[in-house]
């Protein structure tokens, strides 16, 4: 199976996916990283030797054309900060990872939202993407206890479990 990864930021999940693939833990071909702006994920793609494309204006049309050309089995969102249009959502199988236990704390800065709310347990959600923001059928969740942790520590722990589970779940979706 063949995947493409979409990102807008740091790209640590993208890198975790590439590394898992190279360690044989993710059975998939990573066709391309697609970003919608200048971001550190590009730097990671260069270092890792993965081809990338940066879309800017007309990104919706360009992304549709690119996906048609690449024809991936799965589109993986990894910190992609744009809402995908219906024609893309309805045509491809797409997954997203969100750093909270949905449906709590949708949207931006979810780790901080949860932390500031004072929750004692938070976690990550991997879900299929529909036309909403952080909605769509849940595939996987993992919870962690954050009682007494600093925000920095919570962020670190959340990213750790993201990097651990996202590749595993993508592999399951593609190969089970
Ligand atoms: C992750 O926390 C992910 O859950 C959210 O955006 C962040 C992306 O981080 N959707 P990175 O760019 O993979 O480092």
TrEMBL record:
* Matching Pfam families: Formyl_trans_N
Name the chemical reaction catalysed here: N(1)-(5-phospho-beta-D-ribosyl)glycinamide + (6R)-10-formyltetrahydrofolate = N(2)-formyl-N(1)-(5-phospho-beta-D-ribosyl)glycinamide + (6S)-5,6,7,8-tetrahydrofolate + H(+)
Q: What is its EC number?
A: 2.1.2.2
Concerning InterPro entries, the annotation shows: Formyl_transf_N (IPR002376), Formyl_transf_N_sf (IPR036477), GART (IPR004607), GART_AS (IPR001555)
- List each copy of the Formyl transferase N-terminal domain by range: 2-167
**Which residues are catalytic?**
98
Per UniProt, where does (6R)-10-formyltetrahydrofolate bind?
A: 60, 81-84, 96
State where N(1)-(5-phospho-beta-D-ribosyl)glycinamide binds.
11-13
- Pathway assigned to this chain's UniProt record: Purine metabolism; IMP biosynthesis via de novo pathway; N(2)-formyl-N(1)-(5-phospho-D-ribosyl)glycinamide from N(1)-(5-phospho-D-ribosyl)glycinamide (10-formyl THF route): step 1/1
| A single Gene Ontology CC term | cytosol
Protein name from the UniProt record: Phosphoribosylglycinamide formyltransferase
Q: Which organism is it from?
A: Thermosipho japonicus
Write the gene name: purN
